[in-house]
Amino acid sequence: LKNLRTLTTFVVDTKDGCGLEELKDLHHLGGRLELFNLKAIQSGSNAREANLHIQENVTELLLHWCHDIFEYSDHDFDLDVVDNKKEIVEFSLPPSRLETLQVWGSGHIEMSSWMKNPAIFLCLKELHMSECWRCKDLPPLWQSVSLESLSLSRLDNLTTLSSGIDMAVPGCNGSLEIFPKLKKMHLHYLPNLEKWMDNEVTSVMFPELKELKIYNCPKLVNIPKAPILRELDIFQCRIALNSLSHLAALSQLNYVGDWSVSKDLQVIPIRSWPSLVTLALASLGNSLLPDEQQTTMPPLESIQKLSIWYS
Questions:
Q1: Which of 60, 154, 213, 246 is buried most, with the most CB atoms less than 10 Å from its CB?
Q2: Lowest-confidence region among 75-79, 160-164, 228-232
Q3: Cα 59 from chain centroid?
Q4: What confidence tier does 112 reach under pLDDT thresholds 50, 70, 90?
Q5: What is the pLDDT of residue 76?
Q6: What's the chain's Rg over C-alpha atoms?
Q7: Is residue 240 predicted with pLDDT exceeding 70?
Q8: Would you say 41 and 19 are in contact if contact means Cβ atoms under 8 Å apart?
Q9: Which residue intervals define the domain R13L1/DRL21-like LRR repeat region in the entry (predicted)?
Q10: What is the DSSP string of 75-111?
């Protein structure tokens, strides 16, 4: 099988012939490679023998610590094996031609050193990380000119989206552009995410972002500038509805509020979104629509679907 070109899925096991080292001579693999049940790897030497980094034609890589995509990692992951598993991840080095990387269920294992190397992500277009509870920082992707899609879910210790930003990097109109080619971002169940970047600047901007979905990120309180953002979902976050008036390009807004955000009366800035087609609002607390007689802004003629629930 040394000339094998395609191996879509490989499930690691402790049985003979099922170890990761079985891949060591498959130098011609290309396209998509999915590695499941990585928790079954016995030692770091097995992973080193696999020599994943020499498979230069692999463009999509999925690393999953469970048997299949529908199995979730256990929060009670055996901490006695964490150090050994961390060594394993260190040697699971992907190729620099990667366009898609998905990391699922690594649990208490910290992000390995190869994921902190910018050279690995020169061609990366899509990054998905889920159930990597111990992960505190993302790979250095905030300046990536290739990344178009970012999905993060259940990274319990992640506090900042962009770390290590050089303050000398020039911005645009006083704003620092981060993730310059990112078009889609999903942030789900990130209980400690509270900042978009670790350094304080006037503001940051996502210049190409078109779709943003934020679910259950209770410490996140604002949305940066996103001049062409079209679709926005916010569910159970502390982001106030009246703080979204700067997102003038919105065509779709789905918002489920958090009653703890504010007890004060706030006016929904609906006229700040002149291109809005779909608007769904729920759990609004003390939010009100603007008084038609007290506004000088033109009426909204673009809305085709409107749903408002106060309770």
A1: 154
A2: 75-79
A3: 19
A4: low
A5: 47
A6: 22
A7: yes
A8: yes
A9: 20-154
A10: TT--GGGHHHHHHHHHT-PPPTT-SEEEEE--TTPPP
Global confidence as pTM: 0.83
Identify whether the C-beta of residue 208 lies closer than 8 Å to the C-beta of residue 181.
Answer: yes
* Per-residue DSSP letter, 225: B
d(CA 203, CA 21): 48
Instruction: Report the mean per-residue pLDDT for the chain.
Output: 78
Q: Which amino acid is at 31?
A: G
Which residue is it, tokens 């178009």?
148
Helix or strand or coil: residue 49?
A: helix
CA distance 5 to 26: 8
Range 31-60 average pLDDT? 70
The helix/strand/coil state of 233 is strand
Kindly tell me if the per-residue pLDDT of 300 is higher than 90. no
Pairwise CA distance, residues 88 & 106, whole Å: 11
Structural contact between residues 192 and 211, judged by C-beta atoms closer than 8 angstroms? no
Q: What angle do CA 305, 233, 268 make, to 5 degrees?
A: 65
Q: 279 is written with which tokens?
A: 């608007």
The residues facing 279 across adjacent strands are: 253, 306
How far is the CA of 229 from the CAs of 125, 162, 295, 298, 304, in angstroms? Answer: 19, 19, 25, 22, 19
